[in-house]
Amino acid sequence: MSDTDTTEHRVERQTDRTGGIASESTNADVDAIAEAVAEKLQHDDGADDIEDQRPKWVFKQFKEHWKADEKAHSALQPYESAWRQFCEWMDEQGHIYLTDLTASFPGRHDDWIVAHDEYDKTKLSRSMHLSRIKTVVRHAQSRGWIDPSDVPDDETWDAVKPEVDDDEKIRSNPLPPERGEQITKWVRANHFGGRAHVLWLLLFRYGFRVSAIRALDRDDLRLSKPDDWPEEQGFQPHLRLKDRPELGGEDDKGLPLKNKREELAGRLVPLQPEHAEVFRHYVENGSEHGATDSRKEHDEPDEYGLYGLLTGEHNARLSGRTVRERAHWLTCPTTYGDECQCDGCREYRAEHGRNPYPSKVYKHCNETRSPHQVRHGAITSLLDDHSHSTVANIVGTSPDTLRDVYDRADEYRRMNRVADDWLSG
């Protein structure tokens, strides 16, 4: 696009922003619009340096910088999802470049999210969504891809973002351990040795991240002593985790672990005896339906020539998206107990005459939990019975992070932990 074309394009957009020139406009109206456009174009001495860039291209550059800064690939996915929705909104508004935006766009975009049937409308989700959009837009501003005067200030963002109480935030809204125990009993009784049973154990009993679950190969499950096991060391059935950043690395396509610390990225995780039997059933026998939902359902390698431990219904390795969908399904009260009475599920049943399909539960049920929220609840539960150092090695994080970020125990629960140790002595 030439400089002349760029200028003309900006003038056209500025005219659009003022509502356009109606056929009955007076000369005074035209003069007022022209003055407004001229003032806008002269507002920033560096306006000529602003480049018209399409939003998808902008995010591609944002992603490259994310990777260059060695940030976790899994943490990028929420930004990509938010920006994809933002691009959809821009398309519907007829905006081609970020320079087509005005500083009032956060409110209009939030209104669109609220009115959209397919997107999460909860206060927490909308607040986090807008924060991610803000991050990418600020990145674009620093590169000269949007006029600074069109970038909303902090007050504008704060005025649009829903107020979220502390108890509504994701880290303060883990899966309650008591619900986790209820789900554990249900999945054992109804899906013993099946894929859902194994997945739930990894999520709730071991607090594994999605990246760790995906990274497990069939051979990483060791139920019997291998020939190369050191003679001086006792053997325990275990899972072997290893970081493989060379295998993919973007979103759900690769097999790296999130935590890169050597002692945590490559570690052996001992299995409780009762859990080892569940895993054995999964790989050797299958569920009550035969091979369906078991490791025997798929015996072909994935795109890397490896054999995943957890396979999908139609895939050689369970995808991160499926892990998330299954976590939401398992934690929906309708799955493991009575029919869910949250507003989302009631509205869905009233409209469709049934509950949401398992893969769509997360869009409607207000009581479900993500894998990360299950992990928070799992760690809180594990710390009731084990030391911080032991739990840190099981779940793959540092003791300090456990204490400062993951442990959501209240003062009474913490007191009981101390009492169990103090009084037993």
Automatic annotation (TrEMBL):
Region (Disordered): 1-28, 222-258
InterPro entries in alphabetical order: DNA_brk_join_enz, Integrase-like_cat_sf, Integrase_recombinase_N, SAM-like_dom
Gene3D superfamilies reported in the protein's UniProt record: 1.10.150.130, Intergrase catalytic core (1.10.443.10)
Molecular functions per Gene Ontology: DNA binding
Keyword field: DNA recombination, DNA-binding
Membrane-crossing residue ranges in chain numbering: none
Taxonomy, superkingdom: Archaea
Protein name per its UniProtKB record: Phage integrase SAM-like domain-containing protein
